[in-house]
Amino acid sequence: MKVLCSSMLFAPPNANESFMNEQKQCLDNTSSLPLQITNIPSEFIWPDHEKPCLTPPKLEVPPIDLKAFLSDDPKSISNACSKVNHACKKHGFFLVVNHGVDNKLIAQAHKLVDEFFCMQLSEKQRAQRKIGEHCGYANSFIGRFSSKLPWKETLSFHYSADESCRTVEDYFVNIMGEDFRQFGIVYQKYCEAMSNLSLGIMELLGMSLGVGKEYFREFFEGNESVMRLNYYPPCKNPDLALGTGPHCDPTSLTILHQDQVEGLQVLVDGIWHSVVPKEDAFVVNIGDTFMALSNGMFKSCLHRAIVNDKIVRKSLAFFLCPNEDKIVTPPKELIDKENPRKYPNFTWPSLLEFTQKHYRADERTLDAFSMWLQEKTTT
């Protein structure tokens, strides 16, 4: 399956200029910004110690055959559990293949990313994300942050596993209009596929942690998750900017499908590594919420996205989140004298509020959130 033909990998004419013009409409007093010796505003330039490495080593991530794991073959289960246990204790990233998601659906979802982000800014802003909210259209998160802006555009929307509602389809129709119903239908189906895939992955994580297939699957069956479309335009100074800054995902699990353009990087043993796109695989990474559920046994790993000066990069990210009523607490099997409780109980909405209103997500989010919770309970 080819998600993108070769001609789609290259930037549309003047894509960089178009993105810059959109940012100029949103940045205050842009004409007076010091451009230094670069072609991008200073708000997009990252500090020297965070500047990107454009030629990183490749991260060796052995693919996990999900179909074989779900076949109940003891050898396949043991092999998959061993691979995922090693990856999640070391860095929190792994790949799944034979995942059962329709290739045509993936291709449709990528095609609509192009259609949405190539629209005029005024059209995209009909879905404008409001400050303090996590859904909607955002270009570089101007308004939320004033420095170290990410060189990207995103569209995020809520998904509910409740079969009685069609959250995604309704979102596109209500926000963008009836002409966008087909967008809603495609991404509704895509989110349903990601939700089902995530439950299979939760069986794998449960087995690898020794708590059985059902424990985490049941915890996430009524998930209230987030889907995000990422669009990274070319940048004239890719050595100075970042598409997404270094962070750990505060959610439980991220299932990412990349196009064929490299850009995702993971910090392992103090060195940034590239996660090479594979069109038949999904990249899966542990988030802070699942790190808390595993009592710190599985890592929420620091990662980022770089940009380039020639090619548009796109990705589809599904962020699995528990139902808002679920208490995030590890199973008793993961707590003992050698591995005592590391984080307090919490609900996903409280962590989401913390990252949207009080803290810019990084590798210390969960620790900072734990301290914030403790301060709230003692005041």
Main sheet summary: 8 strands, mixed
What is the rounded Rg?
20 Å
What series of H and E elements makes up the topology? HEHHEHHEEHHHEEEEEEHEEHH
Structural class: alpha+beta
Roughly what percent helix? 25-40%
Summarize the structure in words:
- The protein has 379 residues and is of the alpha+beta class.
- The chain has helices at residues 15-26, 66-69, 74-90, 103-117, 121-124, 167-176, 181-209, 214-220, 288-293, 348-357, 365-378, and strands at residues 63-65, 93-97, 136-139, 153-160, 224-232, 244-247, 253-258, 264-268, 271-274, 282-286, 303-305, 313-320.
- The protein has an eight-stranded mixed β-sheet with strand order 1-2-10-7-12-5-4-3.
- It starts with 14 loop residues before the first helix and ends with a helix.
- Belongs to the iron/ascorbate-dependent oxidoreductase family. GA20OX subfamily.
List the helices and strands and how they pair.
Elements: H1 15-26, E1 63-65, H2 66-69, H3 74-90, E2 93-97, H4 103-117, H5 121-124, E3 136-139, E4 153-160, H6 167-176, H7 181-209, H8 214-220, E5 224-232, E6 244-247, E7 253-258, E8 264-268, E9 271-274, E10 282-286, H9 288-293, E11 303-305, E12 313-320, H10 348-357, H11 365-378
GO biological process, one term: gibberellin biosynthetic process
Catalytic activity: gibberellin A12 + 2 2-oxoglutarate + 3 O2 + H(+) = gibberellin A9 + 2 succinate + 3 CO2 + 2 H2O
Pfam family, one: 2OG-FeII_Oxy
Task: Name some characteristics of this structure.
11 helices, 379 residues, eight-stranded mixed β-sheet, alpha+beta, single chain, four-stranded antiparallel β-sheet, 12 strands
